[in-house]
Amino acid sequence: MQAIVGGKVITMQGGYYPNGTVLMENGKITAVGEKIPVPDGADVYDAVGQVVMPGFIDAHTHLGMLEEVFREDGDDLNENTDPITPHLRAIDAINPVDLGFQDALAGGVTTVGTGPGSANILGGEMVALKTLGTVVDDMVMQYPIGLKAALGENPKRNYGQRKKTPATRMASAALLRETLVRGIEYIKKMERANRGEGEYPERDLKLEAVTRVLRREVPLRVHAHRADDIMTALRIGGEFNIRLIIEHCTEGHLVADKLARAGVPAVVGPVIVNRAKVELQNRSLETAAVLAGHGVNFAIMTDHPVVPIQYLSISAGLAVRGGLSEEQALRAITIEPARILGLDHRIGSIAPGKDGDIVVLSGHPFDLRTVIKRVYINGTSVEF
Q1: Beta-ladder partners of 125
Q2: 57, 341 Cβ separation under 8 angstroms
Q3: Sheet harboring 122-130: ordered strands across?
Q4: If residue 12 lies in a helix (H) or strand (E), which one and from where to where?
Q5: How far apart are the first and last CA of the chain?
Q6: Which helix H or strand E contains 247, and what residues bound it?
Q7: pTM for the whole structure
Q8: How far is CA 8 from CA 48, 366, 380, in A?
Q9: Any idea which architecture 56-347 has in CATH?
Q10: β-bridge partners, 237
Q11: SS3 label, residue 132
Q12: Which of 347, 352, 351, 272 is nearest to 108 (CA)?
C-alpha cells in the first residue's frame, strides 16, 4: 500500500483537504480525506506543505510519434501521400522511449491523448495512454479515442502545392463528406448482408474506421483553428449526426455560442505559441475564458512537441491571465480532459476506485517556482 500524508489535497471532485491523506493499493485509490488511519506496513510519503493533485492529462499531443531530436528518423506523424487515411492507427507509430515521455513525467503529466498530425483530411485513429512504460500495448488506456480529421490550411498546403485535392477549403469539406457517405453505404451493405439480403462487402479498413464515427462509437476530432473551419466542422457534424471534438479551437471565442448550442467540446491550444501561420492571427489567452463563459466543455493542450509537454500546467496558468478562473484552469488539465477522452471514470480526480495517478508538487501548479516532487502512476511511485 502507498500512502501520501499531510499534503494539501485537491481532489478535483469538490473536495479539498488542507491536511489530507491519500491511500492507494493494487493500482487504485482506496481512500482520501483527513484523519484517515494509515495501515501498518504502508509505504508512506510525507507531503506536509506540498500540493497533492490528480495526475495532469494532456488530451492532444503527438507524443511518441514526432520525436524532437531525431527529425526525419523520428517523424511518423503524417502519411502525406493520401488525404484520406482513416485506417492508420497511432498505436503502430508510438515509440515508448521517446524522451518526451520522460518530460511528461517530470511535468506531472500521467495520461495523454496522442495521434496523427493534420496533413490529411482524415489522418487516423488516436489513442489514450499512460506516460510510463516500455511497451506501448501495456501503456494503452483506450483505443481508439477518436478519428483525427483536419480542416483549414494544413491539408490545403500539403496537397494543393502538388496540384492535388484538396487545394481549397471547399475540397476539404467535400472529401470529408464523400468519405462519410461511403461509410454510410458500407454500413447499409453490412446490414443488408446480416439480414440475408445480399453478400457482405469486401472488407475495407478505411471504412471500418469511418463507421465507428458514424455509429457514434468514437468522436471525429477535428483540427480547426479559424472560426469558419469550426463552423464547417459543426455543419458536417450536424449533417451526419456524429460526435465532434474541436481540436485547437484558436478562434473558438468568436463562435463560442455556436459550440455551446451544439454541445461540442474543445481541446484548446497550444497556448504558448506565436503566429506561425495565418490561422493563428487571432490567437488569444482569452479563448478559454470565453468558452467557459458560454458553458463549453474544454481542456487545454500542449500539442507536444509544438509546446513541450512539461509546460502543460504553465499553459493552463496563462489561460488564467486571460480571465479563466484558477479552478476552471485546473479542471482543464485534469477532470475535463478525462471527460473528453471518455476516461473520467478512471482518471482526472482523486476518489476511491480511480487509478492511482497522483502528482505531488512543492506549491501551486501555476507558480513558476513550483517543482514536481513525486509522481504516481497506477499507485506506483515513478522515477524521472
Answers
A1: 89, 147
A2: yes
A3: 56-61, 109-114, 122-130, 140-150, 220-224, 244-248, 266-268, 298-300
A4: none
A5: 21
A6: strand 244-248
A7: 0.97
A8: 8, 15, 20
A9: Alpha-Beta Barrel (3.20)
A10: none
A11: coil
A12: 347
Looking at the predicted structure, is the pLDDT value of residue 384 above 90?
no
- Locate 160 and state its grid cell: 494543393
CATH architecture classification, 1-54+349-384? Roll (2.30)
Are 359 and 55 in contact by the 8 Å Cβ rule? The answer is: yes
Q: What is the pLDDT of residue 73?
A: 82
Ramachandran sector of residue 12 (left: φ over 0; alpha: ψ -120 to 50; beta: rest)? left
Residue 212 has pLDDT above 90, yes or no: yes
The grid coordinates of residue 305 equal 512537441
Task: Say whether 221 sits in a helix, a strand or coil.
Answer: strand
Q: How far is Cα 86 from Cα 191, in angstroms, rounded to an integer?
A: 22
Tens of pLDDT, residue by residue over 78-131, are 999 999 999 999 999 999 999 999 999 999 999 999 999 999 999 999 999 999
Q: Rounded to 5 degrees, what are φ and ψ at 154? A: -60, -50
Comparing 27-41, 71-85, 108-122, 162-176, which segment has the lowest mean pLDDT?
71-85
Position 95, amino acid: N
DSSP state of 152: S
For residue 26, which of 354, 384, 375, 359 has the smallest C-alpha distance? Answer: 354
Q: Which three cell numbers stand for residue 368?
A: 513558476
Contact status, residue 313 vs residue 371, Cβ threshold 8 Å: no
Phi-psi region of 177 (alpha: psi -120 to 50; beta: other; left: phi over 0): alpha
Q: How far is 124 from 114, CA to CA, in rounded Å?
A: 11
Write the DSSP string, 61-89. E-TTTB-TTTGGGGB-S--TT-SB-TT-B
Residue 14: C-alpha distances to residues 32, 111, 227, 259 (Å)? 12, 21, 34, 26
> Are 124 and 149 in contact, with CB atoms under 8 Å apart?
no
Give the pLDDT confidence score for residue 363 in this predicted structure.
98
- Give yes or no for a contact between 326 and 366, defined as CB atoms under 8 angstroms apart: yes
Report the alpha-carbon distance of residue 192 to residue 231 in Å, rounded.
34
Report whether 104 contacts 131 (CB < 8 A): yes
pLDDT tens by residue, 240-272:
999 999 999 999 999 999 999 999 999 999 999
Q: Domain residues of the chain, as ranges?
A: 1-54+349-384, 56-347
Residue 83: partners with Cβ closer than 8 Å, 6 or more residues away: 120, 121, 122, 155, 158, 159, 164, 165, 166, 175
